Amino acid sequence: MRETALVTGASSGIGEQFAHQLAARGHTLVLVARRAERLERLAAELPTDAHVIPCDLAADAASLPERVAELGVEVELLVNNAGFGTSGPFLEHDPLRDAEQVRLNCEAIVTLTHAFLPSMVERGRGGIINVASTAGMQPIPYESVYAATKAFAISFTDALHTELKGSGVRVLAVNPGPVPTEWQQVAGYERDRVGVVPGRIPAEQVVRESLAAYDRGRRSVIPGRAIRWFLRATRPSPRAIQLRVTERLYRPR
């Protein structure tokens, strides 16, 4: 029997790549995102069974487990990929949009982990991949809420990985740097500022390196050699210096 993987935010970018690469590994898939038409197109392209569940996780993550149960599948790999960001001065953000961002980037991954983790532990196998970001490794002026939500994802994942050692369940935090996807447009990013941090890599590479790290039972991975070296070079700096550097990098023009 094929293992089933549930991928949120599967309609584009990194989530779509997870769907393709997990399908190539033989997983049955449950594809979740808001855009039903895109999910249906993706499901038709995949060389494996793929179920489509349109769902706005920021508004109704709690309904998803029951909808999955109705499919008669057991989720053995949960990929919490859905998320979005906001950019620009915090005082110019839409408060409702920021609250939605926190619900999707933080609350939804906790809700879905609570729903699917117990059965994984009971079976003694399974895994969770939480797509966080290098943005969560330090505060980022002008991406204040987004960076904070990804810091939550990293901390949550690290703790779970440690708690579940010996259970047979693997937990991995994926921390991409810049990846050219629809994220930048949704966040309102200025077109010429997308590459302010070095080390842009395609979504295909992010997922390939992430699945290799998952196979090895790693706690976290930063896909891409250039961004790993950039972070190593800047990490020893005092927080005040890091903030000055990131403020200049991310300051709107």
The strands making up the biggest β-sheet line up spatially as 3-2-1-4-5-6-7
Query: Given the helix and strand composition, which structural class is it?
Result: alpha/beta
Strand content: 5-15%
Radius of gyration, in Å, reads 18 Å
Give the end-to-end Cα distance, rounded to a whole number of Å.
54 Å
The ordered string of helix (H) and strand (E) elements is EHEHEHHEHEHEHHEHH
Overall geometry comes to globular
Return residue spans where pLDDT drops below 50 for at least 5 consecutive residues: 191-195
Mean pLDDT score, rounded? 93
Q: Give me the oligomer status.
A: single chain
Question: Level of helix content?
Answer: 40-55%
Please explain how this structure is put together.
It contains 10 helices and 7 strands. By secondary structure, the protein is α/β, with parallel strands linked by helices. The protein has a 7-stranded parallel sheet with strand order 3-2-1-4-5-6-7, sandwiched between helices.
